[in-house]
Amino acid sequence: MALDIQRGKRHTPVRAVIYGTEGIGKSTLAAAFPSPVILDTEEGTHHLDIARISIKSWEQLRSDVAEIGSKPSEFRTVVIDTADWAERLLIEHVLKENKWASIESAGYGKGFTMLAEAFGRFLTQCDALIGVGLNVAFVAHSKVQRTSPPDMADGFDRYELKLTKQTAPLLKEWCDLLCFCNYKTTVVEGSDGRKKATGGKRRLMHLERAAAWDAKNRYGLDAELPMTIESLAPIFAEPAKRLGWRDRVAQAVTVEELGRIGLDVLAAVGDGKLSAEQRDLLVEMIEARQAEIKSEVTA
Questions:
Q1: Of the four listed, 25, 63, 69, 98, which is most buried by Cβ atoms within 10 Å?
Q2: What is the model's pTM?
Q3: Is 97 helix (H, G, I), strand (E, B) or coil?
């Protein structure tokens, strides 16, 4: 079998995590992503004029994500706001399903293992959205955590995702953009010799890891940028190339054209370019578009 060697950069939808201090505007930034729908797990987006779905349970979150990805729509970005409240819903789901009083009831860390496995499956579900051309962004709160690196004599405080230690690494590994948001603060020495903080009004995004926070970006962006959607514009710039799967289905005008797209999907699965879950979502989209075309013809 010939090797399927690909060269050059590939433009794919964005996997983003935006976290930081409270009230800094994380939800507002995520709401500025291209054509978003926000899955609101904590009822914290009422001040925004956006499309939203209020999420009441873990089962609803998974079901709604599957529904959004199964058929064409006007949305280009799915925002989960917030990751830590989604984790709360997952914990409630695990406790209810196993009739536990606490996530530690099972002993030996079994509850936390189940939590991580379920969260990992949800990230796989989010990858299916990526596969049909949708950006996925998580908003999350931050917490200050003491850390003690093995190569240092003493520890220090740093900002981390406000998630359990089992799920936080999964989310950090999954994303291509881990954005820590905070206010710019400068420490100066006063006339009395005491140090004090000044500033604290300018909002910044940190996109590279530092001792005080986790961050990363795979797009070559600067380590520190103003907290505006314009700063992130390069990651959404689409090169002039063929349409993605989702757009091909949405713009198809005949059943025959959809049939050809279906054959291309099967070929992509055979070549390992699409997963079985991505295939299933695309098949549902194709079937939904077929029904729309047939109804338009008979109308």
A1: 69
A2: 0.77
A3: helix
